[in-house]
Specification:
mainly alpha
């Protein structure tokens, strides 16, 4: 869970798309995603695997579909890492410039400075993951307690604050200023807001409790993250103008803190986002490294990705590979003319990719349990996963037509590459699979 990062990275974009309709978009999106989370829970309980979505798609539909789904998961998490670099860099530089006054304030919007600081965060996250799961989990738990406490404090201050000129304190049952197209765009972006809850399923093989725990943890995390996000959204929309939130998509929470009086509020909010962003980076890298580990075990990748460090017990090579690719993406940020434009495009594409991973999991859950002879009327194994899958497909299809041409082309190219990779799956298995022993 990283609710502060979710708000910082996406809430401003949702407001830009739907205005006062953003909270309703979040609520409506959460319903089918909860159904998908139930699918994650059931599949993790039935077949715990470090590959999560990839391994379940492979189990239900075969190697080629598994490879395609693994590719989509990889793109979504790498894109998420690229989007995370922006708030990581911006908020860290904001803290260094004010209150510490160690760097110029202009660096906050300098892509080069943002990329350099983001790279340092990625390296730190990679080292944390190599060190081990237990210290990573303990650090994340401490960070979570601090950020949730800070967010609830700021939500309370915002609710007590007089309604700002241009703020919103009226009905939340509205599609907002962007009409239905803007509301749909905000709904898809909400996938990105709630994302992260499924990470626990990638650690299901490392869990020491029952097989129910990773999936149930994911479901709890989704509900808690969405609840915190909703409370903060309602509160912050009162305290600052909506058009201001829309214009501050890369530093949304710093803008809110300034609107609440600045000073200690601003640096505390900035620290909260920095803490949350760090947790986001290493949990995303964690999921990818476990996916590579699982794919290597299945013969889709070289065996090196399946090696476990003898001292730390972590897939160190996979973690190093993920960290290296994330660093390259971070450096690409430095070549862009505007971090704001990059964040908007990447968030749109990543939201679609994440939606596809959820659709794959829901479909795999239904197909797998039907093949086992489970009743079509089984609520948590068939009915709800199917309903969530159909709803997400409808949202993505309708919204895709309203996306910018560049985003649609980029998404199409990403999926086409995945199809091409999936076509060569038998070749990869022959090349990388371990020889059978007598």
């Amino acid at each position: 869970m990283a609710p502060a990062y979710s708000i910082a990275a996406t809430f401003g974009l949702m407001i830009a798309a739907a205005g006062a309709g953003a909270p309703l978009a979040l609520v409506l999106l959460t319903i089918p995603v909860i159904f998908i989370a139930i699918a994650f829970h059931r599949m993790c309980e039935e077949h715990p695997d470090a590959g999560s979505t990839y391994s379940w798609a492979r189990l239900a539909f075969g190697d080629r579909t598994g490879a395609l789904s693994g590719w989509i998961v990889m793109l979504s998490y790498l894109g998420a890492a690229m989007a995370t670099i922006v708030p990581a860099g911006v908020y860290t530089l904001h803290f260094l410039s004010s209150p510490l006054h160690l760097v110029p304030a202009s660096w906050e919007n300098d892509p080069h400075a943002v990329a350099i600081v983001g790279s340092l965060w990625i390296l730190a996250a990679g080292l944390m993951l190599v060190w081990g799961m237990r210290p990573t989990a303990d650090t994340t738990a401490v960070f979570l307690i601090l950020e949730v406490g800070a967010l609830l404090l700021f939500a309370g201050l915002a609710l007590l604050h007089p309604v700002a000129a241009g703020g919103h304190s009226g009905s939340l049952i509205t599609v907002g200023w962007g009409g239905y197209a803007g509301f749909l765009s905000a709904t898809v972006l909400a996938i990105w807001v709630a994302d992260g809850w499924e990470i626990s399923t990638y650690t299901s093989e490392e869990n020491t409790g029952s097989t129910r725990q990773p999936g149930s943890s994911a479901l709890i995390a989704l509900i808690m993250t969405t609840g915190i996000m909703l409370v903060c959204a309602i509160a912050f929309m009162r305290a600052v103008p909506l058009d201001g939130l829309a214009k501050h998509s890369t530093d949304t929470l710093a803008y809110v803190a300034d609107g609440l009086g600045g000073g200690w509020r601003t640096w505390l909010m900035v620290l909260t986002v920095i803490v949350s962003t760090g947790a986001t980076l290493w949990t995303g890298q964690l999921g990818l490294s476990r996916l590579l580990f699982s794919a290597s075990r299945d013969g889709l990748l070289p065996r090196a990705f399946g090696r476990v460090h003898p001292k730390f017990g972590t897939p160190a090579f996979s973690i190093a590979a993920v960290t290296g690719v994330a660093l390259v993406l971070s450096l690409l940020v430095g070549l862009l003319p505007s971090v704001v434009a990059m964040l908007d495009d990447v968030d749109n594409i990543v939201s679609i990719m994440l939606g596809l991973t959820f659709i794959v999991t829901g479909t795999a859950c239904v197909a797998y349990f039907v093949s086992k002879g489970t009743s079509w009327f089984d609520l948590t194994r068939i009915v709800l996963p199917a309903a969530g899958t159909i709803a997400l497909i409808a949202v993505l299809v309708v919204n895709f037509q309203n996306q910018p041409v560049v985003d649609r082309i980029a998404t199409g190219v990403c999926i086409a590459l995945g199809v091409a990779i999936a076509a060569f799956t038998p070749f990869f298995i022959r090349l990388f699979a371990k020889p059978r022993t007598a």
